[in-house]
Design goal:
Length: about 140
């Protein structure tokens, strides 16, 4: 199963759109691109394996595996990238600004329902990320 995240980098954050089979799932927010620096940058473009994950803090969410020079990268709920993220990706239902949104828990639930409803036993989940840079 493949998910696709197309994002735009801005000075103060990154906004993106998440798709499955060319169908819109949700928006995403992230930290700005700061050359993959841990805890202050979004992750590089590329294709990453993902897996369902559970933690008491975020409940059911997704773990992004094998990110170069990074550990613990997740797709989890957050509504303000600069205040709540340390390199992870947050799905949101609505964008309200650069790196900001609303309805993150609902957006993550929608993603998880899609993944759980489509992913076959033994099938690998992949996330492909592509980006463009804005002049803002």
């Amino acid at each position: 199963m493949d998910l696709y995240l197309h994002r735009t980098h801005y000075k103060n954050g990154t906004n993106g759109i998440l798709f499955h089979k060319h169908l819109f799932l949700c928006f995403c927010i992230e930290l700005p691109w700061i050359v993959n620096k841990r805890n202050i940058s979004c992750i590089p473009d590329g294709t990453y394996e993902m897996e369902p994950f559970y933690s008491p803090k975020f409940g059911h969410h997704l773990r992004i595996k094998n990110v170069p020079e990074r550990l613990g990268i997740l797709m989890h709920p957050a509504n303000d990238a600069l205040k709540e993220l340390r390199g992870c990706i947050a799905p949101v239902s609505q964008l309200t600004g650069i790196g900001k949104g609303l309805g993150s828990r609902q957006a993550l639930e929608k993603v998880m329902l899609r993944v759980e409803g489509v992913l076959e036993p033994g099938e690998v989940l992949f996330l492909t990320i592509t980006s463009e840079h804005s002049g803002r």
